[in-house]
């Protein structure tokens, strides 16, 4: 009888222990067909293509695993492994990395906040995404770079992730949360720092980040980026907007927002090297049952080291229709404005796609 009771007790303890840990498998598939019409002075041809969501889609396709273990006393340990995949070719995204989107370990408590260690999103990614209807995806969003006479030209800077990051986020301080990141600059990478503050309550969101690098070669501070965004839910519609100011830009090897800066040469009516860029974006969402309509405008100004300046704008319209909680269809189009519009390969872009998740 005692043996039976002991066995029952051990079984109960094992069940309780297993209940304290969770493992979640998740994934997302995004695929779209798109057409890009080139500006007359870009030197490029029009292009029709099918792409994974990493190009002109809402989200990059991915799969991953999340784990969470309750250690008691309000302390949890977690792990996040997330791999990017290119659905149109079946290959790995993020340069073929096994877990190129994110891979980190975390320790958290309600009283002390959370620490994360590993490859993860930089702090400005969530703030910039909150400032427009499309997050950081689609032909519409401010972070989608363009091709300027064969060279990559960024709009809003957004890495969006970096290696070897140590992140701390405070617990909720009423409606406010604060966070800080540092990447120590291992190997050939420059040092990276980031700060974020977010206010969220009663339908209002306001977020701000300041990120900067430190050159391994010179020891000087570079790639300074300030991002500010806000949105408000009026009930029947949402308004979203954002600003970004970037200075002391350098291509170099680095973590953080500057990872997206592979080129600092602008070609328009004149050609010059820029070290500053400033932008703003404003848009809105109109939910209509299962359908949501959205529009957005983004404008960037590039300031050169020789006093030259040029600008590029983007008008974007689109929408999505939810077939279920996990699947939606989307369509959209963007139209370039400003002095550089004739010099980019994406003067006009249209796309239609599907996104499904589990």
Short structural description:
By secondary structure, the protein is mainly beta. It has helices at residues 2-19, 123-129; strands at residues 21-37, 47-52, 62-72, 75-86, 91-92, 102-109, 113-121, 146-148, 151-153, 161-169, 176-183, 191-201, 204-214, 221-233, 238-247, 265-267, 271-288, 291-304, 309-322, 327-337, 348-357.
What is the terminal separation in angstroms?
46 Å
Strand content: over 45%
Number of domains: 1
Look at the structure and name the CATH superfamily: Porin
**Which overall shape is indicated by the principal axes computed on the Cα atoms?**
globular
According to CATH, the fold-level topology is: Porin
What is the radius of gyration computed over CA atoms, rounded to a whole number of angstroms?
22 Å
Structural commentary:
This protein is mainly beta. It has one domain: Porin, CATH 2.40.160.10. 7% of the residues lie in helices and 57% in strands. The chain contains two helices and 21 strands. The strands form two sheets. The protein has a 16-stranded antiparallel beta barrel. The model is unreliable at 1-19 (pLDDT under 50).
Describe this protein with a few key phrases.
358 residues; mainly beta; Porin; 16-stranded antiparallel barrel; two-stranded antiparallel ribbon; 2 helices; 57% strand; disordered N terminus
């Amino acid at each position: 009888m005692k043996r039976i009771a002991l066995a029952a007790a051990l079984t109960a303890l094992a069940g309780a222990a297993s209940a304290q840990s969770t493992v979640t498998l998740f994934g997302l598939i995004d695929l779209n067909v798109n057409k890009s019409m080139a500006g007359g002075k870009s030197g490029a041809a029009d292009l029709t293509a099918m792409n994974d969501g990493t190009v002109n889609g809402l989200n990059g396709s991915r799969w991953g695993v999340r784990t969470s273990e309750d250690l008691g006393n309000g302390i949890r340990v977690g792990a996040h492994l997330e791999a990017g995949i290119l659905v149109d070719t079946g290959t790995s995204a993020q340069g073929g990395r096994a877990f190129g989107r994110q891979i980190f370990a975390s320790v958290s408590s309600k009283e002390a906040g959370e620490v994360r260690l590993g490859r993860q999103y930089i702090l400005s990614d969530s703030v910039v995404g909150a400032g427009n209807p499309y997050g950081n995806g689609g032909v519409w969003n401010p972070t989608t770079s363009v091709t300027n006479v064969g060279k990559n030209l960024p709009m809003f800077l957004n890495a969006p992730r970096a290696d070897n990051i140590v992140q701390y986020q405070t617990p909720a301080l009423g409606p406010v949360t604060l966070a800080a990141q540092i990447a120590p600059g291992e190997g050939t990478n420059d040092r990276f720092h980031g700060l974020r503050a977010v206010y969220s309550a009663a339908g209002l969101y306001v977020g701000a980040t300041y990120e900067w690098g430190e050159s391994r070669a010179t020891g000087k501070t570079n790639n300074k980026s300030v991002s500010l965004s806000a949105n408000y839910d009026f009930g029947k519609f949402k308004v979203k907007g954002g600003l970004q100011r970037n200075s002391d830009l350098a291509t170099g090897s680095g973590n953080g927002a500057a990872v997206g800066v592979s080129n600092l040469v602008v070609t328009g009516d004149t050609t010059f090297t820029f070290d500053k860029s400033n932008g703003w974006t404003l848009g809105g969402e109109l939910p209509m049952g299962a359908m949501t309509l959205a529009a957005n405008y983004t404008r960037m100004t590039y300031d050169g080291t020789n006093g030259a300046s040029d600008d590029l704008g983007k008008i974007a319209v689109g929408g999505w229709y939810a077939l279920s909680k996990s699947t939606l269809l989307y369509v959209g189009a963007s139209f370039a404005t400003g002095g550089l519009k004739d010099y980019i390969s994406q003067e006009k872009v249209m796309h239609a796609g599907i996104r499904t998740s589990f």
